Amino acid sequence: MRDSLEAAANAAKFVADRLGRKPEVALILGSGLGEFAETLSDANVLNTKDVPHYPPSTVPGHAGRLVAGVLRGNDRQSGSLLVFQGRTHFYESGRLDDVLFPARLALALGVTTLFVTNAAGGISRSLRPGDLMLIRDTINLTFLRVPVPPDARRTGPPDICHPHLRQAITESAAREKIPLKEGVYCWVKGPSYETAAEIDMLATIGGDAVGMSTVPELLLAAHSGVRTAGISLISNFATGRGGGILSHEEVTQTASRVTATFVRLLTSTLLSLTSRPA
Ligand code: HPA
């Protein structure tokens, strides 16, 4: 754990030297959602393979780039943003330290806010592929222990959906006329998708959506005092909820269909949260 923190601190120094500005908000983007980074102005791009200690990503649709920049809109510009395009999933290396690397790097760079997005299977009967769901709370079905900072041990769980961010996201969705659902995200290890019986179980314990990411980053950052929020793009009906046999292609296809709406929601939210006159 100490080694992982040192690795993230080294990487942060490298990134800070290259990017030349201190990010205020970090965004970790999931399968097929990396396009948001293309909308940044004054962008500086780093390949994650050039960043010391950065774990390799092996999943198609996860580009492996860090993009720093700002959003511009109507004479205003956002605070400085750092986008992680591509993440490592637990099933890739079996190391939670790899999964947490982007969040640790963002913390070491001093961000105050972290957004995490993912593609997820819809469990709730009220969710359909293409829906966006604000993550109200999470269930950790991996039973992996997320290593939170020492002073956050044995304290109650932080609010992973920060009230201020929740308000900014829901108001932006309303302004942009983007329907936004809200629900509980279940984190599973993968890499294969669930059985129909497992999905029934997740519904019984209160899950609305299921996926293989996001929860450790949100927990670590929230326990570290950073404001956090997560949004799931519902890419498919979870097994047994409708649709045929699931595939990663279906997940990325739905993500690319909804990407423009997702980008609009993130842009509007970030401008309303952090913008100042350009
Ligand atoms: N299950 C688990 N992870 C996922 C799913 C799913 O149905 N869809 C996208 N990621």
The span between the termini is: 41 Å
Which segments are poorly predicted (pLDDT under 50) over 5 or more consecutive residues? none
Name given to the CATH homologous superfamily: Nucleoside phosphorylase domain
Which word captures the global form? globular
Structural class: alpha/beta
Small molecules (ligands, ions, cofactors) in the structure: hypoxanthine
- Write down the Rg: 17 Å
The secondary-structure element order is HEEEEEEHHEEHEHEHEHE
> What is the domain tally?
1
Strand content: 25-35%
CATH class: Alpha Beta
Integer average pLDDT = 91
* Corresponding CATH architecture: 3-Layer(aba) Sandwich
Helix amount, in percent?
A: 25-40%
- Predict the CATH topology: Rossmann fold
Strand order of the largest sheet: 7-10-9-8-11
How many helix segments? 7
Number of strands: 12
- Biggest β-sheet strands, sense, barrel: 5 strands, mixed, barrel
Short description:
The protein has helices spanning 2-19, 90-93, 96-108, 163-175, 196-204, 215-223, 248-274; strands at 25-29, 41-47, 65-70, 72-73, 76-77, 81-85, 113-122, 132-140, 180-187, 209-211, 227-237, 276-277.
